[in-house]
Each structure stands twice: as structure tokens, then as C-alpha cells.
Amino acid sequence: MDVTAFSVQIYLSGGATNPFIFLYLLQVTLGAVLLRPATLGALVATTVACFTLLTQFHRPLAVPLDHHQGLASPYILGLVLCFALNAALLVVFITRIQRNLRARDARLADLRQRAAEEEHIVRMGLLASGAAHELGTPLSTLSVILGDWRRLPHFTSDPELLLEVDEMQTQLARCKAIVGGILLSAGEARGDAPVPTTVTTFLGDLVADWRATRSSNVLVYTNLFGEDQAIVSDSAIKQMICNVLDNALEASPGWVSLQAAREDDELLLTVVDHGPGFAPAMLAQLGKPYQSSKNRPGSGLGLFLVVNVARTLGGSVYAANAPEGGAVVTLRLPLSAITLDTHDHPDDDTAARA
């Protein structure tokens, strides 16, 4: 249609004697960049046919050629303007096309990176699931043995030993809970059994469980969320937040802060510690596997999993070093991804959908 419309205009204004007929080259050039080979061949054939027909059939152009007058000749001046127009339009179009192609290549590279990371997560999930199954038996055996020890006179008569057995049972219960959580969410980015709750209740229970299982009162929790909102309690979200808190506790055993707030339609969680902070190389590679300063085999997967879980929910993770020292990790989760649907339906239907 472009070629046809242009051909009609040239036919009405001198045909092949019109200096702007060379704008056909602009259409052929753009076609060479944008079109498939077969379609491009059809475009070239069409433009050649139109050019040939316009040499024979056209309305005369009432402008003298006067080639010998140089730029004083309307025809020569038209050729110069046609060349300038061709050059300007080609620069504009080709630049925009190249920018779009670069953006597409960057997008494809990002998608390939995400696919590789998700494949890595699947492999880790299968490994974790298998390990959880294998750990179930020895943990159960240890639980039975500790229960027997607790009833032995040697332990019941010694309060210090009895206290140590109680601590061992607490830590063993935590291990069994971790194994159960792995089995519950194996193979899924989100847990298989979400539970209706609210933001305040979910975060309050999470903080209480974290303090109880870590035997630590160093966590300072501040809730600035405002009006409470119904959400779905998901094990993956809980594990993600606990992972960030665990990293902060390891870097700063004396003090860790968790602040919850609401920004527009997002849940904003900020974890701050007084540790050494992140190395510049780690900040540049945030979310990549095996990026860690712990120098231990297999370390560096915590933030990798946190970033991928947040990204699966449509959120984001931002890490930085505080000016006064320490690290700051900010989790942004869209409330629409975790909000409980509470439309006017019967309670049993709502629970089934949740």
C-alpha cells in the first residue's frame, strides 16, 4: 500500500522525470531490514515494475529540467532535496529499528537468564526434597532417643543436663519443621497449602516463630503498615523473609531490625543490620547464585532464592549499604499477589478458592 500510494503521487507529478522518484529506495531499504526474504523479493519486484511503468505512463511535470543551471534548476534542486530526505529518514528509521532490536535482544537475554535460574531452582528443589525424605528417618530416631533420655533418672536428677536435653529437643523440632516445610513446598514457587490471615497477624507470627527458634531477642520489629488487610499466608513468603533475617543475624548477632510498611499497593519490608555490609561485587551481582562473603561451599543461595521468590510474586528485592554502616535489604511485594479474595461469596467457597 505504501508503494501504491507513492506511485500514484509520482504518476500525477511527472512520473520518472520527478526527482523524488528515488524515494522508492527508502521503501526498499526499510523492507530489507524489516521484511522476510520472500516478502522483500515481492517488494523489490513491485517497486521495479512501478518505476518502469512510470517511465511510460504519467502526467507531465510542467517544470523545465535545465540540468546545466546547477542548483538553479528545479530538477537538480529536487534531486538534492530527495537525497537529503532519503538520508534523514533512513537515519531516523534505522536508528529506531536498531534501538528496538537491541531492546529485544536484551529482553531475550534476560528471559534466557531467568530460564536458567528457574532451572537451577528446580534442580535445587528436587535435591532438597530428596534430602528431606532421607533426613526424616534419622530425625525421628533422634526424637525418640531424646524422649527416652529425658525420662532417665540420670537426666531428671541433673537440672543442667535436663535443660540441655530440652534445648536439643527444641532444635530437633525446628529441624523437623524445616524438613516438613521443604516437603510441603517441594517443586513449587509458592506453598501448596496457603492459609487465610492478615498482614499484621502473619508478620507477628513470623517474628514470634523466628525469635523462638533462633533463641535470640535481638530482633527489633516495627509495624507501620497501617490498616490491616487480609492476605494468604504462604510458606514460601515466610521462608523468604526468614532467610533475609537469618543472613542479617549472621552478619550482626547483636541487633537486627525488621520494619513493615505500606507504599501505594505494595507491602514494603525493610531489614537492617549493623554488620560489615555488602561488598560492591555482591551488590553488582545481587540475585545471582553463589554470591557470598562466607567462603563456604554451597553458600550464596539465600539471596538468590529470595530474589526469585519475590520476582515470581511480581515483587523486587533491593540491597544497599547504610551510610552509618551495616546492610539494608528491602523487599517489595505487590499486595494483589498475596491478597485474599473476599468478594461476596459463601464462606466455604472463599475457603476453597483460597
SSE sequence, one letter per element: HHHHHHEHEEHEEHHEEHH
Question: Strand order of the main beta sheet, please?
Answer: 2-4-5-7-6
Helix segment count? 12
Total strands: the figure is: 7
Corresponding CATH superfamily of the largest domain: Histidine kinase-like ATPase, C-terminal domain
Per CATH, the architecture of the largest domain is 2-Layer Sandwich
Helix-strand makeup class = alpha+beta
Mean pLDDT over all positions: 81
CATH level-3 fold name of the largest domain: Heat Shock Protein 90
Radius of gyration: 34 Å
The main β sheet shows up as: 5 strands, mixed
**Helical content class:** 55-70%
**Overall geometric form:** elongated
Write the layout of secondary structure elements.
Blueprint: H1 2-11, H2 24-34, H3 37-56, H4 74-151, H5 153-156, H6 159-184, E1 195-198, H7 199-214, E2 219-224, E3 230-233, H8 235-251, E4 256-263, E5 266-273, H9 280-284, H10 302-312, E6 316-321, E7 327-334, H11 335-338, H12 347-353
Parallel strand pairs: 2-4
Antiparallel strand pairs: 1-3, 4-5, 5-7, 6-7
Q: What do these coordinates show?
A:
The chain is of the alpha+beta class and 354 residues long. It folds into three domains: 106 residues, no CATH class; 70 residues, Orthogonal Bundle (Helix Hairpins); 149 residues, Histidine kinase-like ATPase, C-terminal domain (Heat Shock Protein 90). The protein contains twelve helices and seven strands. Strands 2-4-5-7-6 form a five-stranded mixed sheet. The chain has a two-stranded antiparallel ribbon with strand order 1-3. Helix 8 packs antiparallel against helix 10.
